Amino acid sequence: GLTDLAGALVWVEKARTAIVPGVSFVDPDEADVMRGEEVQLLGAHAAGLIPADSLVCHPGTHNKWARLEGARITRFTTVMTGELFNLLREHSILADLLSGTAEPTEAFAQGVRRGLGDECLTAELFKIRARVLLGQADAKDAASFGSGLLIGADVRAGLRQGSESDVTVMGRPELTRLYSEALRIAGTPCREVDGEQAFLAGAKGIAELIP
């Protein structure tokens, strides 16, 4: 919790500047690290934005799925969804097709539904190009479809981490709206929390706990 973070601060200048140490997760089969998102997760609870027991999706370059139990982070998984999308749009045969802006359109919804299914993700990615070449899809919809495909696969795996009836999506609005739409398509209610507001609440909470 916030108390643990406050007690583990690494001081650069005593009583003035400190580094929050981050969080790690290790078990015999898993390993993960978090640097910064923990302040937002715990800050969101401290501000009353999420319940003490929550499943939180934190989209970004490296999306986080985190479980809170009793206002403590008990488990989390990092997913390279955002980075993978950026790599595909800059360094793959899909680069030209994915250069547009992903929007929560019908093409996005179609991609989400494919991602939520059991199809091979890498095969589905190649089909983005094939469908455009064969006239089955419009090139202008490719970025939204591709984003939906990756986010749908991300959501499918993320929902396995908890049994909560709803999910909190926290981060920048342009990302939370895409994940919220994907969760809606998956049939899972969700709430959106502004990441900056959560971070400020977390930083304030840590500062107040410093002896």
Instruction: Name the shape in a single word.
Output: elongated
Low-confidence stretches: none
* Largest β-sheet summary: 5 strands, mixed
Multimerization state: single chain
Order of helices and strands: HEEEEHEEEHHHHEHEH
pLDDT averaged residue by residue: 94
Cα-to-Cα separation, first versus last residue: 16 Å
The total count of helices amounts to 8
The gyration radius over C-alpha positions equals 19 Å
Give the strand tally.
9
Fraction of residues in β-strands: 15-25%
Percent helix range: 40-55%
Order of the strands making up the biggest sheet: 7-6-5-8-9
Q: Which class do the helix and strand fractions yield?
A: alpha/beta
Label this structure with key terms.
alpha/beta, two-stranded antiparallel sheet, 8 helices, 45% helix
Could you walk me through the main structural features you see in this protein, from its secondary elements to its overall organization?
With 211 residues, the protein is of the alpha/beta class. Helix content is 45%, strand content 22%. The protein is built from 8 helices and 9 strands. The chain has helices at residues 2-7, 37-46, 81-91, 106-116, 121-133, 142-158, 173-185, 195-209; strands spanning 10-13, 17-19, 23-27, 30-34, 54-58, 63-69, 72-79, 167-171, 190-194. The strands form 3 sheets. Strands 7-6-5-8-9 form a 5-stranded mixed β-sheet, with helices on both faces. Helix 4 runs parallel beside helix 6 (142-158). The mean pLDDT is 94.
